[in-house]
Records
---
Amino acid sequence: MFQPKPLHLNLDNPLVVVHDELQPCPYIQGRDARMPLQWPVGSMTPELIDRCLAQGYRRSGPFLYRTRCPKCQACEPTRIEVSRFRWTRSFRRVLQRGDRDLRMQVSIPKVDETRIALFNKHRNERNLGLSERMVDRQEYTGFLVDTVCDTRELSFWKEEQPVAIATTDFGVESMSLVYCFFDTAFDRYSPGTYSILKHLELATETGRKFVYLGMYVASNSHLRYKARFLPQERLRNEVWETFDA
């Protein structure tokens, strides 16, 4: 049985804080968040990405961050140990339906008008933005194309129509979902769920141990869906705890 172990920050390359101040929380309305942006000095090797992910770091563009909110610990980094994941009949149906009609393409991250339009459509329809302003090419690039590690775009297509776009970081034994957006017109394929299942499938095929799903926030309707993927581990007080219900 999995025994949680405490984590100790011991990175070969230092991370330099470049921005650290309170900001409106993107996950819980009315709260302040502190997520210091840190710039990695030196090369972010796949081995180092594994270690950063295991210690709760996430990546946004060329920066890494961990939540350090003064009065809240609602954000919990979440991961799945691939060999222990439980493939329910519902998950298998989603996978089979998508595999029947969709094709997956793995490439380096890119930006174009199709991706920007789909990103904004998804964000506005699901009320994910802090404002109604559209994300432009420069902002999209800074978020999903600029990177400091081995990053790939997993895109899913129905003929020539983009269904979902997922940006993912690759370590030696880990895959980390940075962000996924999709066209709600294809909801019959459960594109968010399908994307995660394809990541788990790819991790199995490439011999990777963990798939990181990002933050779990129980009170956020857009993030608590992650609790469906079991068993999973969440980082609480520097310890990975297993959840199986």
---
Amino acid sequence: MFKFLRGRPGGMDSIDRTVGEMLIDCRHTFDLAMAALEAGEDISGLAADVRATDERINAAEEQVRRQLIVHVAVHGGDDVGAVLADLLVVKKLERIGDQHKNILDLAEEGVRLGGAADHEEFEELRREVSEMFATTAAIVADADGDRALALGQRAAVMRSDLDGRIRELIHTDLPGSHAVPRVLLLRYLKRIVANLAGVAMTVRDGIERTERDPSGEDVTDD
């Protein structure tokens, strides 16, 4: 257990801090993008904040990549497992940021959930996924393998539930203007959950098994 963070090589503590900051920014853009689906007509302020914060997430990923190149150049390949795990984590966080921009795109196309019959269902999903960011940040900070496993198991259940909701919408008699945006949103949420679980399981297991959930199912997702 804790293979990724056991005996962290010297000089890599700053990467852990950067990952923590990326998770804070990712939660921020998630909450803003979901808020845009509840907002009025003018969401320009929310959109500007999401895109500016996402640029910071992308810049942080590039910063980590540069740090790791320097680390390998100085220390050689002895820490290759930790380096690959770091690269995987920041890539997953960058992917999460992309999904938040996809959610924002729905809002900019005029999709709104406020007042809809399924509004509370999506609000509960928003609360749960937002809390997963805080849980993942705590797992990274504390190298809590048991909590990482629990999050991975919860994520597997959530993905299964989201798949079920997607299937229901595919076969609904409701108009496409209702079903299509919701199918897309649920798909984006599924990808966010999968990548958060991937970050947590990388903390627990390092580069090994990080593309599979605790049941062994492949969860590789863009």
---
Amino acid sequence: EPAVNPNQCTSCGICAGSCPTSTPFRRSGPLEPGIDVPNNPIAALRNELVSRGDANLVLVIGCDTSDSAALEQDGVTVIQLPCVGMLPPSFVDFALARGFAGGVMIAGCAEGDCQHRLGNDWTAARMARTRDPMLRQRVDTRRLLMSWLPRGSLKRRRRALADFRARLSGLGDE
């Protein structure tokens, strides 16, 4: 069974995002994945998603270095993680299927410049369904946007978010 060595852990969360047991769909008992991040458990991510989510929102999940907090506005809620690699794909499915978001934007570091080395690459591969754990086939990827931009690219990220919101409004209740 995997275990976090707190003396070596950078708390990026990539290990938790890779764990197939990190699923918010559990109905019985507490959410206790096979591996968790000290001081930033997956259960806290689920609780924040449930408490702040709404089907009319775009949920932005961003890494701490992405300037994503500045995207919060009417119709947009932001949840920040140490690295987007901490996001299990099942959370995107959960947010969309359970009505906690109308769309999900993942806001990470610039391509090839991830603060935690592999967070963007592994997240992109999971969402593209080429790396375990994979995003389920039932998820409508038109409701998912991945934004890989360097810190300080807030105008570009806002423009991408506005374009994404327009695209989502065109989908309606599909």
